[in-house]
Design brief:
Elements (H helix, E strand, L loop, with lengths): L10 E8 L5 E9 L2 E6 L1 H17 L3 H14 L30
Antiparallel strand pairs: 1-2, 2-3
């Protein structure tokens, strides 16, 4: 079951990342619901920002999303209330198979 919340970056703040080798890396920490989501250097921050803006500009309008979703739902095959008629290999129709009361419920 999918949780009823969208993943989201909840906090952003400057921080120094200390590596195991003792290196200190200045950057920005992105916090999400489950803790640290990323630590980015300034160059990585600018690159990610550019990618986010480009992706946002390519998003369809809400009306376009609604139209596409409606077309997708309409195109989906709807289950039939009745079973399709049985046909023989030569195309002649065959009588429906008998069912017991339990099978027909």
């Amino acid at each position: 079951m999918q949780p009823d919340f969208r993943p989201y970056i909840s906090r952003i703040y400057p921080d120094v990342w200390n590596t195991r080798g003792g290196e200190r890396i200045n950057g920005i920490v992105l916090f999400g619901f489950s803790g640290i989501a990323a630590h980015l250097t300034p160059a990585e921050c600018f690159s990610l920002a550019d990618q986010l803006v480009d992706a946002a500009e390519r998003l369809p309008s809400p009306a376009e999303v609604i139209r596409t979703e409606a077309r997708r739902r309409k195109a989906q095959r709807k289950p039939s209330l009745h079973s399709p008629r049985l046909t023989a290999a030569d195309g002649t129709e065959e009588p429906p198979l008998e069912t017991t009361p339990a099978e027909s419920e």
